[in-house]
């Protein structure tokens, strides 16, 4: 997590990717939805309450085709309210690659932050089976001035277990496991034509479930990449280890075919509101069959 004291140009040793990929910049701990409303600017429109909203079961199967294309590359500017622009981020879809005999797509997120001479670089990679939309492997590395960290998670669908690089093995929480990064891509398959509440228990680690997503109103978002008509999603995530409770991330998804993340916002202690804003999109795809209908960059 990028726990940064911009006064004095100091970075603490907290993991950047943990904040960014729970999911993409951690929100502050909170005890209630009422508190969450103050963590980011209010969304236009009005979300449907969980009492009468359509709710998806935790075992929701994968869409027939991912809502993103092979070769997709999304670039972001990273801004914090109390320090301005501090870095860049990139999300990309690579592959196909073979992973333990399974044809997978490799999702990659790289974030670089800098304040003066101090730099931090995080890289998170998720291998997914595009047919089942389930994670087969997950890695993240963090390089900071005062620390370095490497985490690898191997998922074994045959034994229904996941194993960290420290040797710890646990039972999978679901037969269709996701991680922090692949869940961001999974969200792009949600229907955006109406408000609603969706509950998922798709994280491979049971302690991280459930994730509750509130689909709220529409909002026009102006970016260096253009003006986008978006739908606002408030995602409530659990991370008992790092946050001792819940966090909220607000995501603006493009309402066009690709459902690209246009803006991602959260509020963090000390540094205030953190925003990832789309600055550009491109594609390295050479095969048209890798692109879902209506999704062109």
Describe this structure in words.
Helices cover 7% and strands 47% of the residues. It has four helices and 16 strands. Strands 10-9-8-7-6-5-4-3-16-15-14-13-12-11 form a 14-stranded antiparallel beta sheet, with no helix packed on it. Mean pLDDT is 77; it is low at 1-64.
**What spatial form do the alpha-carbon principal axes imply?**
globular
Task: Compute the separation of the termini in Å.
Answer: 30 Å
Query: How many alpha or pi helices?
Result: 4
Structural class: mainly beta
Order of helices and strands: EEHHEEEEEEEEHEEEHEEE
In short:
By secondary structure, this protein is mainly beta. It is 7% helix and 47% strand.
Features:
single chain; 297 residues; mainly beta; two-stranded antiparallel ribbon; 4 helices; 16 strands; 47% strand; globular
Question: How are the elements arranged and paired?
Answer:
Blueprint (H helix, E strand, L loop, with lengths): L3 E2 L4 E2 L4 H5 L12 H4 L35 E9 L3 E16 L2 E14 L2 E12 L4 E10 L4 E9 L4 E4 L4 E3 L8 H8 L8 E5 L10 E13 L2 E13 L1 H4 L2 E9 L6 E8 L3 E12 L14
Antiparallel strand pairs: 1-2, 3-4, 3-16, 4-5, 5-6, 6-7, 7-8, 8-9, 9-10, 11-12, 12-13, 13-14, 14-15, 15-16
């Amino acid at each position: 997590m990028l726990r940064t004291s911009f006064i004095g140009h100091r970075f603490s040793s907290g993991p950047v990717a943990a904040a960014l990929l729970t999911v993409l910049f951690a929100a502050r701990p909170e005890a209630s939805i009422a508190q969450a409303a103050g963590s980011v600017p209010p969304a236009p429109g009005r979300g449907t309450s969980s009492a009468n909203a359509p709710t998806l079961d935790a075992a929701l199967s994968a869409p027939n085709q991912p809502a993103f294309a092979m070769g997709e590359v999304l670039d972001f500017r990273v801004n914090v309210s109390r320090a301005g622009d501090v870095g860049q981020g990139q999300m990309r879809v690579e592959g196909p690659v073979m992973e333990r005999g399974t044809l997978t797509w490799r999702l990659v997120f790289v974030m670089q932050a800098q304040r003066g001479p101090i730099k931090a670089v995080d890289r998170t990679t998720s291998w997914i089976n595009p047919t089942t939309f389930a994670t087969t492997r997950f890695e993240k590395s963090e390089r900071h001035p005062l620390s370095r960290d490497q985490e690898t998670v191997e998922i074994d669908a045959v034994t229904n277990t996941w194993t960290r690089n420290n040797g710890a093995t646990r039972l999978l929480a679901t037969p269709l496991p996701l991680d922090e990064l692949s869940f961001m891509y999974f969200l792009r398959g949600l229907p955006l034509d109406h408000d609603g509440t969706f509950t998922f228990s798709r994280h491979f680690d049971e302690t991280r479930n459930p994730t509750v997503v509130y689909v709220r109103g529409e909002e026009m978002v102006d970016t260096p990449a253009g003006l986008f008509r978006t739908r606002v999603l408030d995602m409530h995530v659990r991370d008992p280890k790092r946050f001792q409770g819940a966090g909220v991330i607000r995501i603006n998804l493009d309402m066009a075919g690709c459902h690209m993340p246009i803006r991602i916002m959260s509020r963090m202690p000390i540094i205030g509101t953190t925003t990832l804003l789309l600055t550009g999109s491109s594609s390295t795809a050479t095969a048209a069959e890798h692109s879902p209908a209506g999704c062109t960059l």
